[in-house]
Amino acid sequence: MSSAANGSGPAAGAGSAGAAGGPEMGTASPAAGESASLAVEELVAGYGEVVALDGVTVTAGAGGITAVLGANGAGKTTLLRAVSGMIKARRGRILLADHDVAGRSPEQIVRAGIAHVPEGQGVIPELTVEENLRIGMMSWRRGPRADRVAALEEEYARFKPLADRRRKLASTLSGGERQMLVIARALLARPRVLLLDEPSLGLAPRVMAQVMDLVVRLSRERGLTIVLVEQNARAALAIADHGVVLNLGRVVATADAASLAADVALRHHYLGF
Question: Alpha-carbon distance 53 to 59, whole Å?
């Protein structure tokens, strides 16, 4: 299910908490299961001369699933990249539980509690399944080895196919197994907020349904706040609590998921179903 970084894990690196007393970022084994809200306020970001996000405001409630929808080029992936620090915001705030993390490095943002699973099943094929997973714990401070072993076993229990193939190269995995691997790797960073970019991309319908079921379970059982970018608007709205629609870098609609799914004009103009 996708990774915390395309070719790089959910994060290595250090960093200190923000000047105004931001979230703790130096614990030995980050605590899991703590919900946190995420609020993006008037965010402006882009690439060179191109402004991909123009004053975007999005709120993801603690412990819920927020679907971010829109056509190709709407700014969905750029939004996740800006939140995770992969690109620098030009203006605006990114509030994790009321602490502004805008301007921090990707490593610091992971330590603060945000993990990003980019589009594209970004495993490192030359490494084994377990070596890929261990990348997810690079954001941990040194601590008892038993904590790391226990964390790995927790993910193996959640993703049984990975347990069976832990010594196999990631290059031997199926598309669905790779998606499991990258999501498990992100979870090992012990995030409070999980950013998922097109987790169902390229998967068979049956596997896509399993991925969506997993997203629901992570939110309901683990208390993760999930921001889900999906081209398949129908599938995303079916599991989301809240939805946001982007068009050309701006928010054109925001409402509870059921209301967005029922809006015929919105579906026709922006969501393609």
Answer: 15
Q: How far apart are CA 113 and CA 102, in angstroms?
A: 13
Q: What is the helix (H) or strand (E) element at residue 68, kind and residue range?
A: strand 65-69
Terminal CA-CA length for the chain: 25
| Residues with Cβ within 8 Å of residue 10, at least 6 apart in sequence | 3, 4, 110, 115, 116, 135, 136, 138, 139, 185, 186, 188, 189, 191
CA separation for the pair 68, 3 (Å, rounded): 19
Q: What is the pLDDT of residues 136-181, one digit of tens each?
A: 998 887 778 889 999 999 999 999 999 999 999 999 999 889 999 9
With 0.90 as the threshold, say if the pTM is over it: no
**Under a CB-based contact definition with an 8 Å cutoff, are residues 70 and 245 in contact?**
yes
Q: Which of the following CATH numbers is that of domain 38-271: 3.50.30.50, 1.10.357.10, 3.40.50.300, 3.40.50.2000? A: 3.40.50.300
Token digits for 176?
A: 């669905």
DSSP one-letter string for 208-271: HHHHHHHHHHHHHHH--EEEEE-S-HHHHHHH-SEEEEEETTEEEEEEEHHHHHH-HHHIIIII
Beta bridge partners of 51: 46
